[in-house]
Amino acid sequence: MERSVVIAGFGGQGVILAGKILAQAGMSHGLEVTWLPSYGPEMRGGTANCTVILSDRTIGSPIVDNPTAVIALNLPSLDKFEPTVAPKGILVVNGSLIGRKVERTDVQAHVVPINEIATKVGNSRTVNMVALGAYVKATGAVPLEVVKRTMAEAMREGGKEKLVELNERALDAGYAALP
Amino acid sequence: MGERRLLRGNEAIAESAIRAGCQCYFAYPITPQGELVEYMARHMPRLGRTFIQAESEVAAINMVYGAAGAGVRTMTSSSSPGISLKQEGISYLAGSNLPAVIVNVVRGGPGLGNIAPSQCDYFQAVKGGGHGDYHMIVLGPSTVPEAGELTMLAFDLADRYRTPVMILADGLLGQMMEPVELPEPIDVSQLPPKPWAATGARGREPNIILSFDLGPENLKKMNLDLQAKYDLIRKHEVRYEETQTADAEIIVVAYGTIARIAKTAIDMARAEGIRAGLFRPITLWPYPYDALRAVADRVKTVLTVEMSAGQMWEDVRLAVAERAKTPFYGEMGGIVPTPKGILSEVKKHAR
Questions:
Q1: B178 touching A, CB under 8 A?
Q2: Does A64 sit within 8 Å of B339, measured CB to CB?
């Protein structure tokens, strides 16, 4: 089985890091993975996105026309990627920043107040981990515990040990936000 | 083996160069291969090796010339405009029979172009971007693990044939991450000696390394020796990969990033009942003409897909020599063909 997700938002919302952690977690979980960033001018102020593929077999194209999931953290990202989600795919939408409804009726849409949850967790900058937690709940792509462990390792490697606990809570809160 | 790490293409090339015993690395930063320079800056000094951020690409390639002449494994890397600046130095390396590895993480051109992925430097790499009758061995990795493997191989081939070797990647491969199983570092003390190197002439005749001879007869001989070497490389070093070509009616020819995207497109075509296959050159010079011709004899259509206006397409047509139809699909300017885009071309030409 091959799962693909586009994680998209403003530069600074942490989508690149969320994708890296998901890819790393997938690898730790024994999957084949690819992580592909958008790079260049769009990283500077506009929308940033990355594509992660998780598969139990060798991955061909790291580019997907129709990802099986999209995480949209802002409106431009939803506008750009909603039409691309594969039928029956999953859409995680940041309800805090996106006023409009999801138009697709052939996908499973989860509108989550990601910024509100992040603020409640204790830091609005954890939106990426809240979103990742929700994605993990919606897809079961990788166990939450593996994601948490991977995140903790990434934080420690980056000398940000003190952020581990906060981000664990953010992942939990995102995970708990979906039924 | 066994150490599996999630690395960018740029980082896999850098780490593999270190494990291949690269002693001296010189470069000037440019997107989209910045992480390669950063990785070397971080790791080479720690290992007691040489990292120099040169004042220019021209300086970097000439530092490579010096280090190669001194007999150590050496590398430089850049992206398209920077590689253009290195062409004179590459010609000198080739003319002087010096082993070196040059990495081009190709971006959109011509001119300043942009920083998006492209394959528009194929001609420059395989037909000789510098002056003179020379070739480089050119390797086109398709995945991040392969970028690492081919980097290790590049150092061996460079030494074996005393020739510059180019890794021809693109911005997408440089930027993307994938798990890489890293090999054990080689033991440089076990490498074959380089009796030709300029290591200090005490107790022996001086070694002279140059690409210069005023006498036409002598320069002719130098050229014939080079050509003899290229024949040897053509005979022994052609590499390619075939996927589902055995029963194919149409094959896609693609290298690098596009080859892996085409692999997905071919699976999609097969699911729709089209007998499609993939021919992927790994060595872009020497080009696998004979192998491609053999495949072309069995199929109706050979579709070339590239991120260029059709540069490798020329070599495909040379190989196929009208044994099959040879349509072309290309994107330029940093646009990357998607699986669906390639699939629709396959469907169009399979009829």
A1: yes
A2: yes
ipTM: 0.94
pLDDT of residue B300 exceeding 80, the answer is: yes
Among the partner residues B116, B177, B336, nearest to A63 by beta-carbon distance: B336
Would you say the pTM of this structure is higher than 0.95?
A: yes
Q: Min CA distance, A29 vs chain B (Å)?
A: 12
- CB-CB under 8 Å, A20 with B264: no
Task: State how far residue A63 is from chain B, nearest Cα, in angstroms.
Answer: 6
Q: What is the CATH number of the domain that holds A137?
A: 3.40.920.10
DSSP state of B273: T
Out of B4, B260, B263, name the one closest to residue A27 (CB).
Answer: B4
Q: Which residue of B32, B177, B339 is in closest CB contact with A61?
A: B339
Tokens 């998901």, residue located: A22
Q: Which CATH class is domain B3-187+209-236?
A: alpha beta
CATH 3.30.565.10 assigned to B240-350: no
How many Å lie between the alpha carbon of B20 and the closest alpha carbon of chain A?
25
The domain total for chain A is 1
A61 touches chain B (CB under 8 A): yes
Averaged pLDDT, B85-96? 98
Query: From CA B10, how far away is CA B33, in angstroms rounded?
Result: 6
| Per-residue pLDDT, A41 | 57
What would the mean pLDDT of B217-243 be, rounded to a whole number?
Answer: 98
List chain B domain ranges: 3-187+209-236, 240-350
pLDDT in tens, B242-288: 999 999 999 999 999 999 999 999 999 999 999 999 999 999 999 99
Nearest to A85 by CA among A61, A105, A100: A105
DSSP one-letter string for chain A = -EEEEEEEEETTS-HHHHHHHHHHHHHHTT-EEEEEE--SGGGSSSEEEEEEEEESS----S--SS-SEEEE-SHHHHHHHGGGSPTT-EEEEETTT--SPP--SSSEEEEE-HHHHHHHHT-GGGHHHHHHHHHHHHH-SS-HHHHHHHHHHHHHHTT-GGGHHHHHHHHHHHHHT--
